[in-house]
């Protein structure tokens, strides 16, 4: 599968399976199916409560650790040094692996010193517990704060779909060698119904989900659609079989209406 370089020796696949809200057997069977079909990036988080099911699915797949890419995230109340270190070790036990490819700060938290968090993550990296350090739900200003901390951030996982295209944030990330992962890439189904997306689906004779996922991947980002439906898991993977024309990628960029779906009370999007 095509990958993007996070840093030397760490390549992230451009398409992965999101697992938010997938629990128990549903989580396990979705991850098993995805691995069987060819997905190699699995996106989980401490807060999703499915590390153990992800571990079981990986074990059942028989796929070698080196061929997988695991992203997980530390919750925003666990960002002091002590909690970061203990979370890193706990995640290894829960996921039954001896390293995590990418560890993210799930949400920024202005109550906890960012430098302290990033330095603790760097400690996990030096010990080989994680391979790369990233963030999620960070604004340009949060990223500027992280750059001041002098710990290399390689990834920002943020909500991106046609009605929330976040061009300024994407440009800032590009200028600073930060790969963007688009979460909620199909806007939880909403953006599949946009007239332009429907027209492009008809033009290429492909599903609307492919049009959106290709827009993300061809724009140099990683897409992590979530599904527990086997047909959707298989179908989303087939996105990689074809590409949009450049003019169509540009047209989708213009659909932005700042339609943010994920905005919990503790978010810091005004930072
Ligand atoms: N870092 C963060 O704070 C954060 C926040 C939100 C999400 N995320 C990550 O991003 C992942 C994806 O985001 P998301 O779960 O919010 O939304 P999403 O991937 O945009 O949408 C998921 C929904 O779309 C449906 N779906 C998937 N493929 C489809 C297809 N081909 N055709 C029609 N419907 C389809 C799924 O239903 P079926 O199960 O029926 O297919 C599910 O209801 C999450 O699972 C999580 O890993 C991260």
Please provide a brief summary of the model.
The protein is of the alpha/beta class and 271 residues long. It has one domain (3-190, 216-241): NADP-dependent oxidoreductase domain (TIM Barrel, Alpha-Beta Barrel), CATH 3.20.20. It is built from ten helices and ten strands.
List the helices and strands and how they pair.
Layout: E1 3-7, E2 10-13, E3 16-18, H1 24-37, E4 41-43, H2 51-61, E5 69-74, H3 81-95, E6 100-105, H4 114-126, E7 130-136, H5 140-148, E8 155-159, H6 167-175, E9 179-183, H7 195-204, H8 208-218, E10 222-223, H9 230-237, H10 246-253
Bound molecules: NADP nicotinamide-adenine-dinucleotide phosphate.
Structure, explained:
With 271 residues, the chain is an alpha/beta fold. The chain has a single domain (3-190, 216-241), classed as TIM Barrel (Alpha-Beta Barrel). It is built from ten helices and ten strands. An eight-stranded parallel β-sheet has the order 3-4-5-6-7-8-9-10. The radius of gyration is 18 Å and the shape is globular. The mean pLDDT is 97. The chain binds NADP nicotinamide-adenine-dinucleotide phosphate. Residues 18-20, 43, 106, 136-137, 157, 183-189, 192, 209, 224-229, 232, 235-236, 262 line the site of NADP nicotinamide-adenine-dinucleotide phosphate.
Q: What's the β-strand tally?
A: 10
Helix and strand pattern: EEEHEHEHEHEHEHEHHEHH
The CATH superfamily is known as NADP-dependent oxidoreductase domain
CATH architecture: Alpha-Beta Barrel
Bound molecules: NADP nicotinamide-adenine-dinucleotide phosphate
CATH class designation: Alpha Beta
């Amino acid at each position: 599968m095509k990958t993007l370089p996070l840093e030397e020796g760490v390549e992230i696949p451009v398409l992965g399976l999101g697992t938010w809200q997938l629990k128990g057997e549903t989580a396990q069977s979705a991850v098993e199916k995805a691995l069987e079909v060819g997905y190699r990036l699995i996106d989980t988080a401490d807060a999703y409560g499915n590390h153990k099911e992800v571990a079981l699915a990986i074990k059942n797949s028989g796929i070698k650790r080196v061929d997988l890419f695991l992203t997980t995230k530390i919750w925003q109340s666990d960002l002091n040094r002590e909690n970061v270190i203990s979370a890193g070790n706990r995640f290894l036990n829960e996921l039954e692996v001896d390293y995590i490819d990418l560890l993210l700060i799930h949400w920024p938290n202005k109550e906890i010193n960012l430098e302290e968090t990033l330095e603790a993550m760097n400690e996990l990296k030096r010990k080989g517990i994680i391979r790369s350090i990233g963030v999620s739900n960070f604004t340009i200003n949060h990223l500027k704060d992280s750059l001041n901390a002098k710990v290399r951030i390689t990834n920002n996982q943020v909500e991106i779909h046609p009605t929330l295209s976040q061009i300024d944030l994407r440009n800032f990330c590009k200028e600073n060698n930060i790969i963007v992962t688009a979460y909620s890439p199909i806007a939880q189904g909403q953006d599949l119904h946009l007239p332009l997306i429907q027209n492009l689906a008809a033009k290429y004779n492909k599903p609307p989900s492919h049009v959106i996922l290709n827009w993300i991947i061809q724009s140099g980002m990683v897409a992590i659609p979530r599904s527990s439906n086997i047909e959707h898991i298989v179908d989303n993977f087939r996105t990689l079989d074809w590409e949009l024309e450049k003019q169509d990628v540009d047209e989708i960029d213009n659909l932005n209406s700042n339609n943010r779906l994920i905005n919990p009370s503790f978010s810091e999007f005004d930072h």
